[in-house]
Write a structure and sequence with these properties.
Length: 180
C-alpha cells in the first residue's frame, strides 16, 4: 500500500493536533447550544468523525448521510444523488456537517440546499481538507483542517476505489494508480 503513495502530505500527528484544535473551537462555539448534531457525509468522513467527536467536550448526537460521488474515478461527475438520508428530524436543531474533503463543492452545495429546506436552527460545515483551486460551486466553510493543493489524496478515511482508507496519514496517490 505504501508503494502506491507518491508522498505523505500530512502526517498522522499533524492531523491529530489539527483535529483537536478544531474540536476545541467547536466546543467553545456551541457551548450555549442544545445538543449539537454532527452530520457525517459517508464514507470518507468516518475516521475524521470519530476523532473529532471524541474530542468535542459537549453533549452531541451523530447521524450520517450518504451521497453518490466519484465511484472509481478521481473527477466529480457533477451529478449528485442522495443514497442514504438522515434518521434524525433536524428542524430546530444545530447542525454541523462533517466532511472529509471539499473539491468542486458540488456535493456540499447540494447537501446544504437539501438540509436548509428542513429548517435547522443553524447549519455549518466542518471539513478536514479543502482544495480551493477546484471550486465550481460556492460553499462557506466554517471549520477547516487544511487547504491542500490540487492533487488526489488518500488515507485517514479517504479512498481511491474503496482502498487506502485505513492509512493513518494523508498521502498523495501515485497518478499511475488511477491512470491504469
Ligand atoms: P466535490 O463534490 O467535488 O466537492 O467532491 C467531494 C467528494 O469527492 C469528497 O467527499 C470525496 O469523497 C471525493 N474527493 C474529492 N477529492 C478527493 C481526493 O483527493 N481523494 C479522495 N476523495 C476525494
Ligand atoms: Mg466525501
Amino acid at each position: 500500500m505504501r508503494d502506491d503513495i507518491a508522498r505523505v502530505l500530512i502526517p498522522s500527528d499533524q492531523i491529530q493536533s489539527r483535529v483537536h484544535e478544531l474540536a476545541r473551537q467547536i466546543t467553545q462555539d456551541y457551548a450555549e447550544c442544545d445538543t449539537l448534531l454532527l452530520v457525517g457525509v459517508l464514507k470518507g468522513c468516518a475516521t475524521f468523525m470519530v476523532d473529532l467527536a471524541r474530542s468535542i467536550d459537549l453533549p452531541l448526537a451523530i447521524d450520517y448521510i450518504a451521497i453518490a460521488s466519484y465511484g472509481a474515478s478521481t473527477e466529480s461527475s457533477g451529478v449528485v444523488r442522495m443514497i442514504k438520508d438522515l434518521e434524525t428530524d433536524i428542524a430546530g436543531r444545530h447542525i454541523l456537517i462533517v466532511e472529509d474533503i471539499i473539491d468542486s463543492g458540488l456535493t456540499l452545495a447540494y447537501l446544504c440546499a437539501q438540509l436548509q429546506r428542513r429548517n435547522p436552527a443553524s447549519l455549518r460545515i466542518c471539513t478536514l481538507l479543502n482544495k480551493p483551486e477546484r471550486r465550481k460551486a460556492e460553499v462557506k466553510v466554517d471549520y477547516l483542517g487544511f487547504d491542500i493543493p490540487n492533487e488526489f489524496v488518500v488515507g485517514y478515511g479517504l479512498d481511491y476505489a474503496e482502498r487506502y482508507r485505513n492509512l493513518p496519514y494523508i498521502g498523495i496517490l501515485r497518478p499511475e494508480i488511477y491512470a491504469e
